[in-house]
Amino acid sequence: MKKYIFTVGLFDKDTEKMETTREDARDLLAYILIDEHDIFAFSMFDCFGVYRMESTGRIVREPSIRVEVASDEEIDAASIITCIKAALNQESVMLEVSESNITFI
User: Which fold has domain 2-99?
Assistant: First the structure.
């Protein structure tokens, strides 16, 4: 089984501040995963990230959301990231993919 971890900062790439609430961002991420990509099992965690903006070189410290997806089938992570970046106006989304021994009991 593969585990995909998406870490999404919540600062808008242009204003470098939050333009949405955490709750709205979680709802939007759930919509992208469930309704646009047919992913029905995932977990979300609030977290905090530090990122150097490619566009300005500034270092931002921002609230973030980490989304974990476990799947027997390969998912289209690039398409998911494209949707997330457009929906939340992000410069990038961090992605980690690993082989994991995951069991649902």
Answer: Alpha-Beta Plaits (3.30.70)
